[in-house]
Automatic annotation (TrEMBL):
Keywords: Membrane, Transmembrane, Transmembrane helix
InterPro entries: DedA_domain, VTT_dom
UniProt domain VTT: residue ranges: 48-171
Stated name of the protein: DedA family protein
Keyword Transcription regulation: no
Alphabetical list of PANTHER family matching this protein: ALKALINE PHOSPHATASE LIKE PROTEIN, DEDA FAMILY PROTEIN
Annotated transmembrane regions: 21-47, 67-90, 119-142, 148-172, 184-206
Coiled-coil portions: none
Length: 207
């Protein structure tokens, strides 16, 4: 009987994405990728920039503040694009967003409009810092004519607070954080997905 050759199981889909992100973070183009991801996520892309911010800080912890700063800057610039879409192009693009971008529904927009009318700055700040989908708030800000300066200031505080906090925590913990994530990746991925779903649900049910 021929001896069977043991084969290691193929990594699951989430594991492959994580490994791909880590590999990208170790290239000379990691910061460019972070800038593009941060910009896109603020107006239409579903994946938050934290997934690339974290491995970039792992790879170069001494520059955590620069990495967080780039993430913040381009996220706010993407938020301005979101405002522009809402203010100038929503009538032409809304069918696309309602059909293909997660979280965009008439109910969500009605709720966000009420938040803007009552809270304004704090509504953007909450969306910028928490798992609540920020892109819905940036586009809705343009649709409902929220002052652009208010959006920018609230986004700088909220996005900056979130990304600098994440970067600083990773910097403090150091390599042990990477070891912990490697060991418990599936659990972390599941919890992260739950947070995203909670963020979408919060738009409809909070208040």
């Amino acid at each position: 009987m021929k001896e069977e050759v043991a084969q290691s199981p193929k990594p699951n889909f989430l594991r492959r994405i994580y490994d791909w992100i880590i590999a990208w973070a170790e290239t000379p183009y990691g910061l460019w990728a972070l800038a593009i991801l941060s910009f896109a996520e603020s107006s239409f892309f579903p994946i938050p920039p934290d997934v690339l911010l974290i491995p970039l800080v792992f790879c170069d912890p001494k520059r955590w503040w620069k990495i967080a700063g780039i993430c913040t800057l381009f996220s706010v610039l993407g938020g301005i694009l979101g405002w522009w879409i809402g203010y100038f192009a929503w009538d032409n693009l809304k069918d696309f967003f309602y059909a293909y971008i997660p979280g965009f529904t008439h109910e969500h927009f009605d709720y966000v409009q009420n938040l803007y009318q009552e809270y304004g700055f704090m509504a953007v700040l909450g969306a910028a810092f928490t798992p609540i989908p920020y892109k819905i708030f940036t586009i809705a800000a343009g649709v409902f004519d929220l002052n652009l300066i208010t959006l920018i200031l609230a986004s700088l505080v909220g996005r900056g607070g979130r990304f600098f906090l994440v970067g600083f925590i990773i910097y403090l913990i150091g390599p042990k954080a990477k070891e912990w994530i490697d060991k418990y990746f599936n659990l972390i991925a599941t919890l992260f997905f739950i947070l995203l779903l909670t963020g979408f649900a919060a738009i409809k049910f909070i208040g």
